[in-house]
Amino acid sequence: MSVSKMKRLTVFAFREDADRIVRRLMNLRCVEVRTADPERGAAVFPYLNAEAELAETEKTLGAIGEVLPVLAKYATRKKGLTRRVLRVNREAFVRDGRAEAAMETVRSGLTCKKRLHEIETEQARLQACIESLAPWIALEQPLNDLSTQKTETILGAFPSSAVSDELVEMLAEAGAIGEPIGADKTSLYFSVTYLRSEESEINRFLAERGFLKAEFTDEAGSAKEISERSSGQIAALREEYLRVEEQLRDLAERKDDVEILSDITETTRTAAKLKQKLAKTEHCVILDGWLPTFMEDRVTEALNAYDCAFETEEPTSEDEPPVLLRNNRFATNFEWVIGMYSYPKYGTFDPTFIMSIFYFIIFGLMFADFGYGLLLATLCFVGIKVLNPRAGMRRMLMMFGFCGISSAIMGAIFGGWFGDLPTAVMTQIAPNAVDSSVGHFFASGLWFNPLDDPMTFLIVSLAVGAAHLITGMAIKFIVLCKDGHAFEAISTIFPYWVLFAGLGLLVVNIASPGAIPAGVAAGVCIAGVALILLLNGYGQKNPLQRLIKGLGGLYGLISYGSDLLSYSRILALGMVAGVIAKVINMITALGTKGPIGFLLMLVILVVGHGLNIAINILGTFVHAARLQYIEFFGKFYEDGGDPFTPALPTEEYSEDITNGSN
Fold this sequence. Notes:
The chain is of the alpha+beta class. It has 23 helices and 17 strands.
């Protein structure tokens, strides 16, 4: 429920300890390493060069990334929905030789992958050769020995529109011997023999008639012999392909070790990038970073294990420390909603806890349906259990799970049960039950149904909005007081509260005449207006300027009014989901006769409500967040903070069971 206090960390260490210290800080997960300031007094230091290490790890990662999909394809255990995390002692993994064995698996996998590609390419070439030889199978002469000392024989194809006999006659007239070999839908295949001395004239004759010369390899033998040899080669390659695949299946059994190696190598690359942020001297390195104050003892204990000098110091007014939010287990799940907007500026108020409560309530009001909420909560909480998602996805699912609980509660209060599904079923099956106490409960809930009484729901929406806005003003009031500006807080915020109280009394008096004397309500309103005119000009010495600023304060009521009206979207979103659900139930009721009608009813029911849930969850999420960002945060929020991003080991596939140790 606060922005954690941060301290600057500066470490001076021997260069040979740089890697170990950086990795230790990564394992602690509480230090954000910044690019070191190279200027230290009169000296300017260069940065540590880790390009060679970085290039080597990126090369290794490229090989691992290339082979992992291949191993996954041939692994007997396929990837499921649940995220599987391997727990391993990474130090022992490297020390015991498993890392080198995993790297050998990578190299073997790449060799197998390359050979499979070569086999596929060669098979494609041979198959293309067989297909190109198909028209010439009947030709018994060797394809590489068709010519003599004085004659040239070429093979090729004329367009299928030509007439074979006419071509033979024309070739004879031109001084060549044409022999038809075969035909298909596109071509006539010919063997053409001519004297070498007449090659130019014959080639011109053939070109004019669309003749395309066939090209063959230099292999010895007839088309049939070459085709048979190629078929045999394809069969041999197919057997080799199966053997290589079997090798890959064996290698795939060691896929877990390759995944662990991937995480270790990725962590090494991160460490190399961090080391490039260190300034260096001839023998030492200088590390700059930030750490949360509550983790200072842990970092100090870790650094004391090395021959290094370090210090922590409070940030100065010129520093921009990163922002780490600290909230309870409920509010933590809403921090990512803050992150979508902007983190609070360091040293300012963290609104996550208060925002999470209002978000919980507003989401429930906008999506007030017991069935929808229960389904949303169940899917989210079961999803966390089954999928074992990463921290970011887990928090998002937790937040929507809590919002589902809110929707279920509001649905019970306002009579939303997959729209009016229970009432619709009662109408079809037992009409008399609709007027019973059970029917009334399902129709109106514990309080009232917004579809039957939208004005009351609008009042509820605006009341929640008023509480939301006043809470934002109260936060601003408290922040100003803590910063030593109590009179400013009283002058610029308190008068509005007096006026709002008077307006509230007027509303109560209108709703229940005589409950509150009209003069009291009017007097409080007048007092609020007077205080705004008198106090809103705080800081202005000129009476005229003070009055003008006071009038500006009164004009600001329009802004508060427009902000309050924005909460009418709670009414709109709440009714949209209910109306669509009711329409779906009405359509469903039309097809309840007969088995086909029953099946059609189920399809409409499932698909309709599924789409309604999906669309309205998105709309509710967006509009609930908008009310926080615009109306609520606009009253007090100071944004612009940079999220705290500590250096972390990679845990894509595995977790180090010795995390935090040397």
